[in-house]
């Protein structure tokens, strides 16, 4: 029981009587006291600086509004690409043996945006894997030239081939439903059917969001998102009418999962997130029809257009590669294997997947 003398005056005045064990105050050594005081000082210091960032803090994780890159309005102004030398056509080098399920023999593949860059190289991968190809592009002249280049490259790499692949060129504005339907009808008329699709048509622009012209944003979404949706649904209808399985591969981007720095590109990032989720949603909806839908999300790839941008913005490449665990940007031919895998029967139990080909960028 606490004695009257031990009870504080304020409590005695209010007639409150209490019992409690007197707290034991530990006796600290001089070294313990010094540590205790240092910890208190550090805690106070943290409280004082919590709202005052260190100068330069976060600089490498932010976008830079001064970086502006516009996509050319005229497709003919885009740099031309060349079919790659993948090394797989030379006898004895990575040709045999391989799993038969990776073959695309007897299949007809459509690649949108297939006249240059990643689309061109992935189309070449389809041809090398035994498939026939329909190149779709806004620039019909460039598509026709590249169709001829792919066939000539194949003949050079496979001089004893028993079958020369059929490669055709077609025009389409992927954002226009009527243009898409006309293109699909033309491809079916020339090839007899369609089995596979790769949606590579797309572009990016770098603008700070508050100043990005709305008409340009709508055009970007029209190509990247609407174009993917329109071609996918048109070919899905074709496959369902034939009661035939098929495989569709959407070309997304690592930007659909992360925010790139330092260049600002919010509308593009959001459009590629939409592409990724379109693939997952279609995969579930069309699984019962035997139609598989997957997404490939490339990281930074050294296409002809990317090289041109980096030549004009030399600091960008150093900043980009510093964030890639493998320490280098990818090459377009790095997508030949992934797209062949996802289109072929080797991946027949894979649907709704997002395959990231980014050198480990999105792991960090």
TrEMBL record:
Q: Which family does the UniProt entry place this protein in?
A: Belongs to the short-chain dehydrogenases/reductases (SDR) family.
* Organism name: Neurospora intermedia
Q: Does the keyword Oxidoreductase apply?
A: yes
Sorted alphabetically, the keyword list is: NADP, Oxidoreductase
- Coiled-coil zones: none
| InterPro entries for the chain | NAD(P)-bd_dom_sf (IPR036291), Sc_DH/Rdtase_CS (IPR020904), SDR_fam (IPR002347)
Query: Under what name is this protein listed?
Result: NAD(P)-binding protein
């Amino acid at each position: 029981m606490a004695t009257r003398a031990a009870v504080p005056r304020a409590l005695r005045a209010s007639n409150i009587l209490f019992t409690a064990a007197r707290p034991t105050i530990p006796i600290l050594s001089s070294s313990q006291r010094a540590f205790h005081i240092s910890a208190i000082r550090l805690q106070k210091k943290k409280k004082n600086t919590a709202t005052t960032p260190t100068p330069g803090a976060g600089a490498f994780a932010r976008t830079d509004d001064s970086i502006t890159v516009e996509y050319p309005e005229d497709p003919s102004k885009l740099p031309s690409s060349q079919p790659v030398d993948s090394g797989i056509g030379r006898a004895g080098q990575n040709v045999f043996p391989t799993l038969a399920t990776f073959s695309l023999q007897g299949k007809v593949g459509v690649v949108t945006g297939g006249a240059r860059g990643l689309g061109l190289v992935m189309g070449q991968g389809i041809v090398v894997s035994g498939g026939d190809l329909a190149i779709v592009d806004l620039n019909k002249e460039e598509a026709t030239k590249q169709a001829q280049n792919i066939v000539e490259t194949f003949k050079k790499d496979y001089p004893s081939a028993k079958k020369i692949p059929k490669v055709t060129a077609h025009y389409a504005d992927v954002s226009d439903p009527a243009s898409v339907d006309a293109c699909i009808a033309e491809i079916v008329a020339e090839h007899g059917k369609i089995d596979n699709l790769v949606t590579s048509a797309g572009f990016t622009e770098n603008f700070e969001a508050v100043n990005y012209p709305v008409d340009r944003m709508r055009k970007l979404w029209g190509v990247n998102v609407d174009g993917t949706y329109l071609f996918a649904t048109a070919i899905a209808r074709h496959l369902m009418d034939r009661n035939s399985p098929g495989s569709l591969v959407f070309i997304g981007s690592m930007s659909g999962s992360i925010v790139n720095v330092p260049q600002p590109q919010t509308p593009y990032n959001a459009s590629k997130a939409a592409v990724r989720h379109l693939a997952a949603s279609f995969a579930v909806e069309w699984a019962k029809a035997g139609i598989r839908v997957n997404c490939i999300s490339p990281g930074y790839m050294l296409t002809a257009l990317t090289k041109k941008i980096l030549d004009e913005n030399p600091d960008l490449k150093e900043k980009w590669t510093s964030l890639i665990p493998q320490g280098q940007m990818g090459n377009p031919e790095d997508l030949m294997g992934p797209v062949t895998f996802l289109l072929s029967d080797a991946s027949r139990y894979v649907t709704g997947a997002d395959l990231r080909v980014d050198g480990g960028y999105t792991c960090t």
